[in-house]
Amino acid sequence: SGLSQEAGSVEQLSLHCAEGSLEWLYPTGALRLRLAPRLPPTSAAVRGGSPPHVTACIKPTGTFRGAQLYLEREGVLELLLPEAPRPRARCFSWLPQEKVALFLQATPHPDISRRIAAFRYELRGDWLGRPALPAEGACRPCNDTEILMAICTSDFVIRGSIRSVSNDAELQESIIGVSATRIHRQKFPLFQAGGRPGRPVGNIRTPLRCGVKPGPGTFLFTGWLHFGEAWLSCAPRYRDFQRIYEGAQRTRQNPCEFPVD
């Protein structure tokens, strides 16, 4: 709470967790949030000694008020969230040796009405088993190798069809309504009963710029959780996936076992 801070003071905090949230009531002065994830000791040795980038994503609540959020990188400030921002995630990356922090600065107001500057954050990267989101190549079709890796490592693998596609221009997202014929894996109950008898349904998101259109056929949807929502990575037609997987089986290049029928 800013009520316990001196006007103009800067309180220092460290964020060590891979994901979490912060809520600042009655913002006063500023908070400097040092991003210090606990990287595994082997992370610097991955890929021939090249340290992986760490990516953070910040998503403000719909009631974010009373402060502005800046990214502080090597002493330089960059505005991430103005006061009353759109509830969209902002992502940025850095190398482990770089010094980065979030600088949350209260904005002056003539009254003392209740304001809350609150947001959720996620850290992403190969060391966590999560890709960075949103990716520049999010709209590019996956190649065979990427499809085979997606079925082994994704947060969800769902066989099903597209029921609908709706677009959210404000959030710049497309929401794909999916009817599942088989749930191969889901780390959280994203798809639940609610469609035709025995057909779980759920939503998968993708950037609006990808231009997703509804179409017939059965697909294998794979992807990742991002702030509790399902985001698409690879979605081959199921018959194409069968061909790719069976070919990899013959050459013993499939990275994991997967039920194909």
Automatic annotation (TrEMBL):
InterPro entries: Meteorin-like. GO terms for biological process: glial cell differentiation; positive regulation of axonogenesis. Keywords: Disulfide bond, Secreted, Signal. One of its GO terms (molecular function) is hormone activity. It is found in: Secreted. It comes from the Eukaryota. GO terms for cellular component: extracellular space. Its main location: secreted. Belongs to the meteorin family. This is METRN protein.
